[in-house]
């Protein structure tokens, strides 16, 4: 192959390179992820009058977030801790994000995935989790306990 | 057989152009699939999302849309070029694959047209249903198989999607690989091919930058006066169907093209090849040119049609300026949203207001667009129930900017009063 022909055979792929470069560049922008925008709405958890006793109380809250082309309304489990001045903690394990359950007989939260354990006040007892259950911002309004919901990703981003 | 000099060499670059346009279709198709959802309740939303929110989305979709039309034209020219050089004698496989590719590219265009599920997609699916149902003998069964049931439904859309993104591309892929296997790339893709393909791609890229792919109103929102028009590669069929009585439509639209393709595929084994293929191709060219021209001028001659089409274009432009309306997805077993604190939102609020202002007035953000929350809005001046009703009728009178628009024609006085009465109770 002479120099002349090898240069020409290289040049003929330039238009092809242009195709892939222009669509490839657009593809990067096209596929770039969009951060979900959680709303900072205050969500009702329960009436304060219902929240009594030493045990954590499991409640479901319904939160909205804008995810891509949809506004997704999703249910999340939280625990109210009446013994700790009605603090609300997320049920998401701070280790890998499974949902912890309250074990009444052993008086602790346990994570079904990797055996992290948390005390009744949400603090870490043992297992791979690096910290206790994440508290959510809470307030009392008109006799109702309300929280703002943040996902694990948002809680740990700060 | 390839000429190496002069105009003949340039006329033979259709191979390279078709190869590059196929690559563009594959690349852009893969990208679109990252957002598109083939279901009747989300298809239109996801295509709108690609058009309005995703960076370069409108260009990628336009490349795919117009690319498919250009591809059809160039595959057709490719077949004519092969006929010219008697490839059905000298290179039978190449000839057969080219004819099959033409059929596959048409099929891809036909199935792809249904996917955005806008009004024209819906009508195109209806026409496909009618054409298949009208087939002699097998029509009834074929219709059920195409639709996946007795009516057009979300299952139909899934079928068109599977055919469009899996079955047809796989068959095209087999044809391309077979073609590459039979010859050397260097022989297939010369310098002239590269130049011609580069020019065609540049032209397509600039055309699509200026012209976004059309998207009509969603299938549910289209008015009864909506005039659907198919893609450019099917205008000949659209126009032909006007001239033949009902039952014969399937013959013109499916049986005859099928027979023509079958004869062309079998051409290497037929006698009088030049005569048969020559007449079929020239009849095809004449028919397509006449019908497409008739369609083009027909739409412009009739003032009523022209007015309606202009109205549709204006409506589409207005739609492009509106912000994207996200879909609502509920992943909750209990239906107790926070809105119950101040009473559930009125249905009309959920329908018209919630996508921007949130299901319980908390506001929202879409990219650079911020939609104001409505919580505590009654504490502001000029936001009594009467004011909010007035504002819904004429937002500019209250100093509000688009995208907030007037709902005077969409809501009754009573509905506006119900929404306003609910909004003033919203507290932070």
Write up what this structure looks like:
The complex is a heterodimer of chains A (158) and B (428). Chain A is of the alpha+beta class and 158 residues long. Chain A has two domains: 1-32; 37-157, Rieske [2Fe-2S] iron-sulphur domain (Rieske Iron-sulfur Protein, 3-layer Sandwich), CATH 2.102.10. Helices cover 21% and strands 34% of the residues of chain A. Chain A is built from three helices and eleven strands, in the order H-H-E-E-E-E-E-E-E-E-E-E-E-H. Chain A has helices spanning 3-11, 14-31, 152-157, and strands at 37-38, 43-47, 57-67, 70-81, 87-90, 101-103, 108-110, 117-118, 124-126, 138-141, 144-147. In chain A, the strands form three sheets. Chain A has a four-stranded antiparallel sheet, with no helix packed on it. A four-stranded antiparallel sheet of chain A has the order 6-7-8-9, with no helix packed on it. Chain A has a three-stranded antiparallel sheet with strand order 2-11-10, with no helix packed on it. The longest helix of chain A has 18 residues, at 14-31. Chain A is elongated. Chain B is an all-alpha fold and 428 residues long. Chain B has two domains: 6-320, Cytochrome Bc1 Complex, Chain C (Up-down Bundle); 338-423, Cytochrome Bc1 Complex, Chain D, domain 2 (Orthogonal Bundle), CATH 1.10.760. Helices cover 63% and strands 3% of the residues of chain B. Chain B has 19 helices and three strands. Chain B has helices at 6-11, 14-33, 43-52, 57-84, 87-90, 92-112, 119-133, 139-147, 154-182, 185-188, 191-210, 235-243, 249-265, 273-301, 303-321, 347-352, 354-357, 385-393, 413-423, and strands spanning 327-331, 364-366, 369-371. A two-stranded antiparallel ribbon of chain B has the order 2-3. Chain B is elongated and about 85 Å long. Mean pLDDT of chain B is 86; it is low at 335-342. The chains are: A alpha+beta (158), B mainly alpha (428). At the A-B interface, helix 1, helix 2, strand 3 and strand 4 of A face helix 2, helix 3, helix 4, helix 11 and strand 1 of B.
């Amino acid at each position: 192959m002479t120099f002349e022909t090898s240069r020409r055979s290289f040049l003929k792929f330039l238009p092809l390179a242009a195709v892939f470069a222009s669509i490839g560049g657009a593809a990067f922008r096209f596929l770039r992820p969009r951060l979900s925008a959680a709303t900072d709405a205050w969500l009702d958890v329960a009436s304060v009058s219902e929240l009594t006793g030493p045990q954590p109380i499991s409640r479901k809250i319904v939160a909205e977030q804008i995810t891509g082309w949809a506004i997704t309304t999703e249910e999340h489990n939280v625990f109210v801790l009446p013994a700790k001045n009605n603090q609300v903690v997320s049920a998401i394990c701070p280790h890998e994000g499974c949902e912890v359950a309250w074990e009444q007989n052993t008086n602790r939260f346990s994570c079904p995935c990797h055996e992290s354990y948390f005390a009744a006040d949400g603090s870490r007892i043992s297992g791979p989790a690096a910290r206790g259950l994440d508290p959510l911002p809470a307030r009392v309004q008109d006799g109702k306990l309300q929280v703002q919901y943040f996902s694990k990703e948002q809680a740990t981003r700060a | 057989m390839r000429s190496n000099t002069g105009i003949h060499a340039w006329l033979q670059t259709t191979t390279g152009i078709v190869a590059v346009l196929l690559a563009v279709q594959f690349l852009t198709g893969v990208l679109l699939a990252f957002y598109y959802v083939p279901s009747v309740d989300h298809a239109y939303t996801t295509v709108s999302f690609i058009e309005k929110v995703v960076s370069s989305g409108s260009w990628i979709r336009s490349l795919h849309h117009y690319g498919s039309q250009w591809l059809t034209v160039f595959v057709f020219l490719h077949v004519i070029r092969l006929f010219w050089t008697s490839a059905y004698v000298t290179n039978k496989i190449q000839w057969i694959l080219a004819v099959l590719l033409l059929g596959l590219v048409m099929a891809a265009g036909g199935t792809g047209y249904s996917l955005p599920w806008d009004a024209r997609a819906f009508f195109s699916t209806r026409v496909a249903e009618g054409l298949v149902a009208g087939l002699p003998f097998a029509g009834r069964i074929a219709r059920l198989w195409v639709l996946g049931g007795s009516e057009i439904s979300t299952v139909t859309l899934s079928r068109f999607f599977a055919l469009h993104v899996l079955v047809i591309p796989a068959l095209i892929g087999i044809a391309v690989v077979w073609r590459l296997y039979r010859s050397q790339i260097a022989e297939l893709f010369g310098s002239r091919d590269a130049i011609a393909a580069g020019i065609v791609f540049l032209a397509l890229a600039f055309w699509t930058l200026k012209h976004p792919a059309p998207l009509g109103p969603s299938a549910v929102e289209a008015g009864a006066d909506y005039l659907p028009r198919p893609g450019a590669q099917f205008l000949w069929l659209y126009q032909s169907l006007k001239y033949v009585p009902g039952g014969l439509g399937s013959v013109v639209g499916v049986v005859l093209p099928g027979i023509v393709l079958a004869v062309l595929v079998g051409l290497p084994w037929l006698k009088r090849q030049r005569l048969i293929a020559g007449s079929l191709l020239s009849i095809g060219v004449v028919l397509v040119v006449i019908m497409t021209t008739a369609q083009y001028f027909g739409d412009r001659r009739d003032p009523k049609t022209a007015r309606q089409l202009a109205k549709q274009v204006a409506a589409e432009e207005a739609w492009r300026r509106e912000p994207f309306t996200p879909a609502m997805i509920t992943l909750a077993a209990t239906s107790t949203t926070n809105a119950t604190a101040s009473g559930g939102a009125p249905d009309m609020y959920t329908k018209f207001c919630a996508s921007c202002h949130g299901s319980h007035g908390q506001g929202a953000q879409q990219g650079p667009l911020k939609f104001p929350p409505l919580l505590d809005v009654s504490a502001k001046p000029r936001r009594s129930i009467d004011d909010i009703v007035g504002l819904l009728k004429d937002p500019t009178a209250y100093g509000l900017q688009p995208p907030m628009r007037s709902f005077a024609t969409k809501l009754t006085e009573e509905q506006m009063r119900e929404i306003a009465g609910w909004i003033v109770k919203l507290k932070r």
